[in-house]
Amino acid sequence: GATVMIFIISPKLISVDYWVDPVASVFNKQPHHILTLTGRVPLWQALWSETKNHPWGFGFAAGERLLTVSIINPHDIGWSPTQAHSGYWSVWTGTGWLGLIPLIILIITMLLQSQQLDYHIRPFFLCILFLLLINNWTINCIGGSMNPGWIVIMVLSCFPPRRLLIESNYSSHLLSTTRW
Known about the structure:
Layout: H1 2-9, H2 16-26, H3 31-35, H4 40-51, H5 62-65, H6 67-71, H7 74-77, H8 87-95, H9 97-114, H10 122-135, H11 148-157, H12 162-177
């Protein structure tokens, strides 16, 4: 209730402009760098306009290979990128829906699988998963070229849920002690 009241009393607190200057000064950046995620937002907008009619992508690692050559005009965004600066965009430019849908399914499966993990392991698993998923917005960590972030995701996806292991051990114990 108090939080809502503050925003009603002071609408400038919810204004982006109110928060951008202090954040920019903390990181010694210009406000437009913060608002555009250091130029990534114009890059992603240009990527979308150039790739939206290519639902199957441009081929493996197109976000890294073709970006400065043929997909993006550096004058349109104000700088010359050498990669998509996002693992999700890298997957989209490389394989389109054919790669993006399995990546989304992998993420959803890992989130569902985390519910089966032992409560001691679950926070560690979710923390690493969320850090990698958030980091992947700005760096090609998952779905781009092979790198340590992708390897960690693959290891996490194979993490055996302890509850399932206990249940399978219990079931096999019951079967072995039951006489037919």
